[in-house]
Design the sequence.
């Protein structure tokens, strides 16, 4: 009777494991994933105005009314603040010297009144940390919007969808196998 064997080749696994040990390849892969997948996802969340669970909470009526007043230019007893900004009477919002009243159109998308925070994203805004890489938004106040505060509703834009997670995983696997 002939003997039957089942052979399991480990050469592919060894290549894969060697790739895991190659930290420079791993870092390159992580940076590429951040620049492609994470960046595109964050921009899409701005377009969709949605977080991981649901659409972003709309602006309050008071905020909408304040923006409408600023947009129309209606102001009563506008006061000059020390930093050169103009504060609308009864409004916590200040219009900076270089800002246009048109930017405060209440029909603008959420988190995109002036466009500064949306434009503060770049595929190049990636930095290395001990555990991997981080894609960041350069607007100093972006974290307040993403995480929320006592007075500001949370409107998450720094998250990955299931599709984004799958794509990131596939890309990392390609990097580790040396196919990218």
Sequence:
């Amino acid at each position: 009777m002939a003997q039957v064997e089942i052979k399991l080749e480990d050469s592919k696994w060894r290549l894969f494991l060697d790739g895991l040990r190659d930290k420079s390849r791993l870092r390159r892969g992580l940076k590429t994933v951040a620049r492609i997948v994470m960046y595109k996802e964050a921009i899409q969340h701005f377009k969709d105005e949605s977080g991981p669970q649901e659409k972003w909470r709309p602006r309050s009526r008071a905020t909408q009314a304040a923006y409408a007043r600023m947009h129309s230019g209606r102001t009563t007893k506008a006061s000059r603040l020390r930093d050169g900004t103009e504060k609308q009477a009864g409004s916590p919002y200040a219009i900076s010297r270089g800002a246009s009243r048109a930017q405060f159109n209440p029909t603008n998308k959420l988190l995109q009144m002036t466009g500064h925070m949306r434009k503060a994203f770049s595929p190049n805004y990636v930095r290395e940390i001990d555990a991997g890489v981080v894609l960041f938004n350069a607007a100093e106040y972006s974290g307040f919007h993403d995480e929320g505060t006592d007075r500001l509703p949370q409107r998450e834009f720094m998250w990955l969808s299931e599709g984004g997670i799958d794509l990131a995983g596939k890309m990392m696997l390609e990097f580790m196998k040396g196919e990218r």
Summary: The helical segments are 11-21, 23-48, 61-72, 116-119, 142-147, 162-176. Confidence is low (pLDDT under 50) at residues 76-80. The beta strands are 79-80, 86-87, 94-95, 126-129, 132-135.
